[in-house]
């Protein structure tokens, strides 16, 4: 298996690094002296740019590596499930975003301060920090596996941790000076790179298959075992199916509501627009824009099925290995390692890196904004306060702390994913459920009812997290319960806990 980088690969990587350094230098010249400028880009982001930034933040290395594996193993049910984020985007655009803008919020958790008190806000912010460190570290780990295999020809722990450190360092250095505006324009660069590399691989793979379009489609609709790999909707009621229509209308809807409206990593971009209408339009555009991107990666997986499992169409047999030096690999990684020519291999490596950097730098800025706005600033102002430049410097220190925590989680994920043996896409989504369950339950009660108090909010956040933890197969949960249904149960438990006290407030109006 020839996995060595050629000179042309290193040239492509070098050009990418030059672009990154040039962008970093340009934004290093921008001095953000106020929190509104540093964390919300002065609320000047247009809808189209907010949409691209949200796409870059949500389409991570898990998408790059996991989605082709999903369609290679099964069908197009994950693509059919994009109905769920579209519905969730409409819900968040009309229910949550107007409320955030009415408050002139810097973080989404300030809503709980108005509804309850500052302690409720800090607990929700803390739950976000825990969940995002877990999810962000897991995504860095997934990207590090591919980078270590392709660039270093090794999957040893030192190689994977070195790759993870490179991703963290690149994201941190680019974001350090320019704040959210640097993140958003960097997202545009990374989005262009990783979508371009995916399209290039799709074209190369398609041209390598000596079969007509009609033959390919016929083969996909009648795969071995009578499987229709072109099926878009999975109507199964089996609770182990994570992308069925039932899951789409329940847990996946909740997952996307939490991602779009309760996760500061995503919502921060929408709050950086001039007004609620612009932010809402950016969110809806991002949900629609995700459809063709996911379709490209799903198409890669389908063509990999033809390439490796349909020798009657290829005219020869291609063997796909399931491991590399003892490390399990997805079919896409195997294809990159063994079939992609020099130059294109470098571009794909850059694409994986771009997906990881775009996700990571956004997480760094979002988590730092919560740490400073919801925790440090109130503490500092209770002791005399400070000027805007002080909080910007504190935000940069916060990003350093978060970067170290995410790197530690990436190292933890090295062992976690091996124990659970989950497909990469499901692993990345599963990690997000832990924090989202409590947040969803609390916000449903806070926005739509007048019940609850600060203590019930705290209990609900913890109850949702613990419920999802107990539903894991390695605890006492039933084997095969897919993550969307774990989220449904966790959210229901959290909402019931939060709503137990009658409360003294009113549901939040727009």
Structural write-up:
The protein has 510 residues and is mainly α. It has one domain (7-498): Sodium/glucose cotransporter (Up-down Bundle), CATH 1.20.1730.10. It contains 23 helices and 2 strands. The protein has helices at residues 7-28, 35-40, 47-58, 61-73, 77-80, 83-95, 97-103, 110-115, 118-152, 157-175, 179-207, 213-221, 245-249, 251-262, 264-271, 276-309, 311-314, 331-338, 344-381, 388-420, 424-448, 454-470, 483-498; strands at residues 323-324, 327-328. A two-stranded antiparallel sheet has the order 1-2. Strand 1 and strand 2 form a beta hairpin. Helix 21 packs antiparallel against helix 22. It is globular, with a radius of gyration of 22 Å. The model has no long low-confidence stretch (mean pLDDT 80).
Structural descriptors:
510 residues, Sodium/glucose cotransporter, two-stranded antiparallel sheet, 23 helices, globular, Na/solute_symporter, sodium transport, sodium, transmembrane helix
Topology:
Blueprint: H1 7-28, H2 35-40, H3 47-58, H4 61-73, H5 77-80, H6 83-95, H7 97-103, H8 110-115, H9 118-152, H10 157-175, H11 179-207, H12 213-221, H13 245-249, H14 251-262, H15 264-271, H16 276-309, H17 311-314, E1 323-324, E2 327-328, H18 331-338, H19 344-381, H20 388-420, H21 424-448, H22 454-470, H23 483-498
Helix pairs in contact: 1-10, 1-19, 3-11, 3-15, 3-16, 3-19, 4-16, 4-21, 6-14, 6-16, 7-16, 9-10, 9-19, 9-20, 9-21, 9-22, 10-19, 10-20, 11-16, 11-19, 14-15, 14-21, 14-23, 15-19, 19-20, 21-22, 21-23, 22-23
Membrane topology: Multi-pass membrane protein
Subcellular location: Cell membrane
Organism: Sphingomonas canadensis
């Amino acid at each position: 298996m020839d996995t060595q980088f050629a000179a042309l690969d290193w040239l492509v990587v070098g050009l990418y690094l030059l672009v990154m350094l040039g962008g970093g230098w340009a934004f290093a010249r921008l001095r953000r002296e106020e929190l509104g400028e540093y964390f919300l880009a002065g609320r000047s982001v247009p809808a189209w740019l907010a949409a691209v930034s949200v796409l870059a933040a949500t389409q991570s290395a898990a998408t790059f590596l996991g989605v082709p594996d999903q369609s290679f193993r099964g069908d197009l049910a994950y693509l059919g499930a994009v109905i769920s984020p579209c519905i969730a985007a409409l819900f968040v655009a009309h229910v949550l975003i107007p409320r955030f803008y009415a408050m002139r919020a810097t973080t989404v958790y300030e809503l709980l301060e108005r509804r309850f008190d500052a302690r409720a806000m800090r607990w929700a912010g803390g739950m976000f920090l825990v969940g995002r460190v877990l999810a962000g570290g897991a995504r860095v780990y997934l990207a590090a596996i591919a980078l270590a295999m392709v660039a270093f020809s090794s999957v040893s722990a030192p190689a994977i941790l070195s790759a993870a450190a490179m991703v963290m360092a690149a994201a941190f250095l680019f974001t350090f000076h320019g704040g959210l505006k640097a993140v958003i324009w960097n997202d545009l660069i990374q989005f262009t790179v990783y979508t371009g590399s995916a399209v290039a691989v799709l074209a190369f793979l398609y041209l390598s298959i000596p079969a007509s379009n009609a033959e390919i489609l016929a083969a996909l609709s009648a795969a071995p075992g009578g499987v229709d790999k072109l099926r878009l909707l999975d109507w199964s009621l089996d609770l182990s199916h994570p992308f069925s229509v039932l899951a789409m209308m329940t847990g996946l809807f909740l997952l996307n509501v939490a991602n779009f409206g309760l996760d500061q990593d995503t919502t921060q971009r929408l709050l950086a627009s001039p007004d609620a209408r612009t932010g809402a339009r950016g969110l809806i555009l991002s949900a629609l824009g995700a459809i063709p991107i996911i379709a490209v990666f799903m198409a890669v997986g389908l063509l990999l099925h033809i390439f490796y499992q349909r020798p009657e169409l290829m005219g020869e047999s291609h063997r796909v290995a399931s491991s590399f030096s003892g490390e399990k690999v997805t079919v896409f990684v195997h294809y990159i390692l063994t079939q992609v020519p020099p130059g294109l291999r470098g571009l794909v490596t850059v694409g994986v890196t771009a997906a990881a950097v775009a996700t990571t730098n956004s997480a760094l800025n979002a988590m730092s904004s919560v740490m400073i706005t919801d925790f440090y600033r109130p503490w500092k102002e209770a002791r005399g306060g400070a000027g805007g430049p002080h909080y910007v410097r504190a935000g940069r220190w916060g990003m350093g702390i978060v970067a170290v925590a995410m790197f530690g989680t990436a190292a933890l994920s090295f062992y976690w994913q091996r124990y659970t043996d989950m497909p990469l896409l499901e692993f990345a989504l599963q990690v997000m459920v832990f924090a989202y369950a409590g947040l969803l339950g609390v916000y449903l009660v806070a926005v739509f009812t007048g019940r609850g108090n600060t203590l019930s909010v705290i209990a609900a956040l913890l109850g949702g997290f613990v419920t999802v933890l107990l539903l894991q197969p390695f605890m006492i949960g039933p084997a095969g319960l897919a993550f969307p249904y774990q989220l449904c149960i966790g959210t229901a438990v959290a909402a019931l806990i939060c709503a137990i006290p009658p409360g003294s407030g009113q549901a939040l109006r727009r």
